[in-house]
Amino acid sequence: MLSCPYCQKPVTEDALSCQSCSLTIEGAASLLGPVPLLNRGLTDTTETLSGRERRALEGAMTRFEKIHPASRLNIVVRSFEPEYNLATHLFWLFNTAGLSPSESQQEKNQDILIGVDPHQQRVALMVGYGLEPFLKKEEIVELLETARPLLGQGKLAEALQVVIRGLHPLLQQASIQAHKALGLSGMASVAASPGTSF
């Protein structure tokens, strides 16, 4: 079961809006305003990251995508409106900012968007609908919690590296679960090996 990014209540995969709070992509856009121009990959509108830190993160992102070729990783570092939770902001950006290729169908989208507000020390991530059923919310929350102390110390690049490293085992486990769900349990051990994804 998926959850609404705004109210955190369960929603069905095919729902066009949240049954509890009525959030839609259009509703998020009316709350949050015009979609900012973002680059595919790493965008840091706060200019917090040094050139060396950017290069190291871009290298980690490239390695991530080689290990998990079905997933594209995007990172947005910016000042987000504090009135709304970060998950709502990421839902809005994920669905409207053109970070995923247009041919990536919603139900098959396995992309990941990490959002960080270094000034408010907030970090969150959103995964595509193709990944969401196979990732446990508790594990994602636990991963993000490991990064928060680093944000509190002003170590943005280190916090992002921790999240990227922590995503590897989560995606490998998700791959095993997806193969089992599809009745391909014989392939699960292969799917969990580095260099593959579902």
Automatic annotation (TrEMBL):
Where would I find the TPM domain in this sequence? 43-166
Q: Do you know which InterPro entries this protein is assigned to?
A: TPM_dom (IPR007621)
Protein name, entry field: TPM domain-containing protein
